[in-house]
Amino acid sequence: MRLLLIEDNPSLAAGLSLALSNKGFSVNHVDKGQQALQAVKIDKPDIVTLDLGLPDMEGLEVLRQIRKLDSQLPVLILTARDTTEDKVCGLDLGADDYLCKPFEIEELEARLRVLERRLGTSSTSEIECGDITLDTASLEVRQAGQLVDLSRREYTLLKSLVLNSGKVLTRDNLEDKLYSWGEEVASNAIEVHIHHLRKKLGARLIKTIRGVGYTIEKL
Ligand code: CA
Asked: Whole-model pTM above 0.70?
């Protein structure tokens, strides 16, 4: 899940980036409205958190322009402004949710999970695929009821494949989902994670489509 974090407070942004990366989000942080719009255009995030008090643009204007670029992109407003007027205005402009600072990181994560679920079809935090169950709240994976110990990147990789079961994901698709923008990625990184996943979950689950990428069959 690619998350665009629009936040001009450096320490808050650093804290959120770390916490959300640990929860499996691939976080791209920008601190200005113009950069945010560029990132929406070019990097195509899956979800956005937007601070309303930005140095170069009104946050609500950023939201208005995001909506012009992508009417479906989930946007969660994070702001110190907590007047009813601002909330209503943000929601009227098409924000999906609203959280006032200060907030607990757990609450932010819970709300992002709700938005994430809206992107998919599942109505619970569990995603099932054959005998595999992923819990997007606890990040636990079970196979036939048995807990399987996965690294964060293995989990994110498996989740991407499961959410797109029946489709082939290329190595580039998967790198985008696993790594943040500008992060150094070893050329065989995806192959290594796939190898580990096969060792832990059995060799037959993830299929290699030679020269294209990887897939999990729709079950
Ligand atoms: Ca701010």
From this structure: no
